[in-house]
Fold:
Amino acid sequence: MKPPRFDYHAPASAAEALELLGRYGADARLLAGGQSLVPLLNFRLSAPAVIVDLNRAADLAYIREENGRVRLGAMTRQRAIEFSPLVKSRLPLLAEATRWVGHLPTRTRGTIGGSLAHSDPAAEYPAVATALDTEFVIRARTGERVVRVTEFFVGLMTTAVQPGEMLVEVRLPVLAPNSGWAFEEFSRRRGDFAIVGIAAMVTTEGDRCRSARLAACGAGPAAMRLRGAEEILEQGGLDDRYVDDAAARAAELVDPSADLHASVEYRRHLTRVLTRRALKHAVDRARGAGAQPRRS
Amino acid sequence: MAEPGKIRMTVNGQAREGWAEPRRLLVDFLREDLGLTGTHVGCEHGICGACTVLFNGEAARSCLMLAVQADGADLMTVEGLARDGKLHPLQEAFWEHHGLQCGFCTPGMLMAAYDFLRVNPDPTEQEIREALSAVLCRCTGYQGIVRAVKAAAERMRTRLGDDMERNRAPGAG
Amino acid sequence: MAYRELAARNDGTILAMRSRWYDNVGGYVRSPEPGCTFRPIGNWVGPYRFTNLAADAHVVMTNKSLTGPNRGYACGHLYFEIERMVDLLSLRLGMDPAEVRRRNFIQPGQFPYRTPSGGLYDSGDYPAAFERALEAAGYHKLREEQKSARSAGRLYGVGLAVAVDPSVSNMGYVTIALDPAVRARPEYLPKSGAIESATVKIDPLGKVIAILGTAPQGQGHQTIVAQIVADELGVAPGDITVVDEMDTFTRVWGISSGTYSSRFGSVGTSAAALAARKLKDKLVRLASALTETPAENLVFADGRVTARGESGHGLTLKELAGRAHWNTQSLPPGMEPGLEATAVFGFPLADSPDAKDRVNSSNTYGFIAEVMAVEIDPETAAIKILRYVTVHDAGVIINPLIAEGQIVGGALHGLGGALWEELAYDSEGQFLSGTFMDYLVPSAKEAPLVEVEHLATPSPFTTLGAKGLGEASSMTAPAVVANAVSDALAPLGVQITELPITPSRLWHLLEAARQTPRIGSR
Structure:
């Protein structure tokens, strides 16, 4: 199984890439890390007329902090994120989730932009982005727009990026003071896509929960924000009973499908279990205990 | 353009070149155009890891890369592990600890382990297992492989000498 | 799919088993299928003494993937059934499953043992190997751990599995697929036997070359043959050149030659040893004539032959070989020129099936005893393997490192089918696991540590006393993990009757059990 023929371009900059996208429109597919697209090419499940390879567009890979957010170029490698001291201190939820993304050799090539734009329902990065006030910078030849996460993930493997446009940057808010985070995942084997994964972030104010953020992957057509569960914590508090209630509510809010690996009911159940575990861990961290990331 | 073009790269320290259509996979270019058949094609969808090579110093699945993407790059395949006829400590350890049977996954295991040990030179057994979960093996049950990587790590840590790779920053690029 | 019944006395002695099974072989039967249905016919009773066995096998063709021989060939299914039944019996009787097994083993004094279905078990000490496994695993401590885990509400299980490990297919077993009436016809040509060949030769420079008939794929045949030949000829293994290429046009081979059915350990090593001994015999006669020393006083060591008790350099193998090749007229009268010997080793007891379908389907029979401890996460139903101990009797072990590699590899192969791997279809017949993203081969992270021990009862039917072990724990791993998980969940009334055990399926079993009101204890 080898890829079908395609016209190939490797632009040296984002601008050049957009020029090509503008020219070829829906005939073109963007090649980022290749960990999702190349298998499809190899199986000939995808047969684009044109491939625009972003791997030589050096201006698309960077990690920098600006105005309370960390900005990551879309072509930033997952491996760079994994080893970035800046990400570890300012975006620890992203750092922790990265350990669950595939394997080291896939993270060498895989990118944050690729993962977010592909929006596999079981992928970890979309859940992290959904749990935070993430901003997505989408650029076309004609200009750029900033889309908030609530408008970015539109449906099954569909995002707000239109033909002729490209995701160029992702902006995640830095960890707020008095905050704790956790990423919990259950998969059949190490490195597999999640059966269910939960991203959690809580910010405390004394005994109260000033803000709670919860997102699930693997439990719906796209990463899902679990606002109803968040409200239980924000209105009630961070004690076990609120955590348990939030976890139960999370299980009701998700919209899982069945596949050969897990039933709908089991995914709902896992949502509850993992939400509770993630919240407990996040709360512990927020309260200062458990500074080390826990391994499963 | 879809036509074959000239590509040039460094492989195992040597300048190499060839012609490749854009759709030619890197693993096929290495094996068939450069004659470096040590890298294996297992699944062609990025799961089994038998195709793992080092791309600019970092392990990557060569069945998920196009040969044209390696133009100008610095690659290492399993053929590049031994130096001047002397086996790399990883290779020695695989031999001593029965870390291979049919050998099909072995190049992938070696290259993945090589990258991993640069990032984590003193790993626990569980950390080794986690890292090696990137490459599938059907023959061994992994026990000999894990032992081999642990032994190689120790040998590489205590070895006095000239392993310049230890000085390269992990995760760079 | 199988239905199995067991009859036993209250003291745990098994009297009879009846099994009716349906094998889904896929779209058509592809040779050597339907071997999956009856390959282990000779060892259908496993290591147990009961003599009343009824077997009713059905082969069903459906529009699904074809089946074919895989490691363990039908034994994984066989022992899953038998060992689950033994555990269910233990549960019913309220007895320790270890004790129930003890009461049913074929005893060491009974070998060679003829099974009701025609198998001839060559050697074994099942009780001793079993006790060794229990001891190595600390079985009693595991049960103590289980008690305290249970009182803390944890789901902790201990599983046992034992098996007779058949190696070397007797070609005759394949003809079970034919009706006995057909086999009785005068024009029918019966099939039988299992052979392997090897050639050992010495070239004019004294280099020893060994040629195999087995075409291995990483099982270390070259290393082992080098060891065997080196041992016989008194040279270092590194001095043997082993040729493992096979060309049926130019090399010695037989219809059953090859690497499958764990046969190398048994017939392969026998052929290599016999060929080496044949050649050694010739070297002895030659050296004896040249040095005028009686054969019994000659010592072959370090690449030379010397006379016992005498100082002196003797003759190197190279000098001997030189004589044989360059000066054939100087050879002892009647000695055939050349330094080459071929041996073809065949089993004398590999007969065709009789009129009642009884057949000694394999030629050597090893034994495996395993203990596994697991803990199940009550929330996610994830299974964690805490200990996995396996004791093997594969007769004489020639290379322990290679043996361990085969055992550990086989164990994970078996566990793969028990916990992760499945050719899955949906209710519309759509194939669901067509890539490695969904067909889950276990990785290093899933693989448990396997603790391996040996207890050897040499086979009287092979030259070195070795038996095959390439498949080994692939046969017992599904049974032992199913027993361990069932043991962990016994208080909830959950029993494993289907593989693979996936977290989702297991959770559904747990949920169903939790919602079922339990009447009575256990």
Summary: Chain C touches chain B through 25 residues (CB under 8 Å). The mean pLDDT of chain C is 94. Residues 297 and 310 of chain C are 10 Å apart (CA to CA).
